[in-house]
Write a structure and sequence with these properties.
two-stranded antiparallel sheet; Dehydroquinate synthase-like, alpha domain; metal ion binding; Glycerol_DH; metal-binding; alpha/beta; Rossmann fold; EC 1.1.1.6; oxidoreductase
Length: about 350
């Protein structure tokens, strides 16, 4: 079995928020919007005007928490009460994941995502990441319904803090470094080889345009370089996540990230920042000489990924041991990697980040 679970259409155009109404009106005139106050402000008044001009009725539902089961239930009830025929998610990862989860629980509804940052591939990715009320990772929920459209307005993304773009670059880089090790023991998986090809496209885009895109985003300017990097963060990374067959290839850095989310001291780190430190830990786990891969370390430094854990409120040695023990990774998947996923091996790599000053 081989499957590609991806959106039907990917639209990317500066100023696209002003055309959203005409694009949605073909499919629905009663839409439920899941967004955050900041994201909603960033797309308006252009988006509201476009909905009004297209004769669309809409109701705005503000997500003010993480993407939790409770939040999904609350907003699911609101969407059902509205009798909406289309769910439009506008915002960052937590908003888009909530909108995707809601749409997957309602029959005969259309899903559209409009990312306001390029910090993850959530607008495209075939999963919703569910957290608890404290921000800790609970599960990655596979989706059966994918977005009809992903609408990307680079003018909106360019106005956001460049920190989001850099975190998105690191999150997209992770796909290459996470999928690549699986090839050492198995090179006959079509899904894995296509994942790696999509991930490699993202890496090559960052090599050519990443530095310029970061400068352009910092100046809030839409340029060809920024457009290409936004596409790599959302579409190329999303496509790398879209390939599926009988043999999963879960990312080690993302598994480490998932445990990091349970540390209160890391709650102000972006997803890609936690993934970046997870990549450093993974590289140390892969290393034969106790040093991370130089090319990866240079990229993590270039995009300001945190390269050490912060101060903890508690016994540091005990917390490091706890983190290592609680990284969730199945024995079946670990057996297909060319390095050990044993807790003591993870802990050794974590402690190496303590002993070296990579930053």
């Amino acid at each position: 079995m081989f499957a590609i679970k991806s959106p039907q259409t990917y639209h990317h155009q500066p100023g696209l928020r002003a055309r959203t109404g005409e694009l949605l009106a073909v499919h629905s005139n009663e839409i439920a919007i899941i967004t955050s106050p900041k994201a909603w402000q960033s797309v308006n008044p252009q988006l509201e005007n476009s909905l009004r001009e297209a004769g669309i009725r809409w109701q705005v539902n503000f997500l003010t928490t993480g993407c939790t089961d409770a939040a999904i239930e609350t907003h699911l009830n609101a969407v059902r009460a509205q009798n909406a025929t289309l769910v439009l998610g506008i915002g960052g990862g937590r908003v888009l994941d909530c909108a995707k989860a809601i749409a997957n629980l309602i029959d005969d509804i259309v899903l559209v995502t409009l990312p306001t940052v390029a910090a993850t591939c959530a607008a495209w990715s075939p999963v919703s990441i569910i957290y608890n009320a404290h921000g800790g990772h609970v599960r990655s929920q596979p989706l059966s319904r994918m977005p009809l459209m992903v609408l990307v307005d680079s003018e909106v993304i360019a106005q956001n803090d460049v920190r989001y773009l850099k975190a998105g670059i690191v999150d997209a880089l992770a796909k290459w470094y996470e999928f690549r090790p699986y090839k050492q023991k198995s090179d006959d998986s079509l899904a894995l080889n296509l994942k790696i090809q999509a991930a490699k496209l993202a890496v090559e885009t960052f090599e050519k345009y990443g530095a310029q895109a970061v400068l352009d985003n910092a100046r809030h300017e839409v340029t060809p370089a920024l457009i290409k990097v936004i596409d790599a963060n959302i579409a190329a990374a999303g496509m790398a996540n879209s390939m599926r067959d009988e043999t999963p290839a879960p990312g080690v850095a993302h598994a480490i990230h998932n445990r990091f989310t349970h540390q209160p001291e890391l709650h102000d780190w972006l997803h890609g920042e936690k993934v970046g430190l997870g990549l450093l830990v993974q590289s140390l786990m892969e290393s034969d000489n106790g040093e991370p891969e130089p090319e990866l370390l240079a990229l993590l430094r270039q995009y300001d990924a945190p390269l050490a854990l912060p101060e903890f409120n508690g016994n540091r040695d005990e917390i490091l041991s706890s983190i290592a023990r609680e990284v969730k990774f199945s024995a079946e998947n670990a057996a297909r990697l060319p390095f050990s996923m044993a807790a003591e091996h993870i802990e050794k790599a974590l402690r190496a980040t303590e002993n070296q000053h990579y930053s």
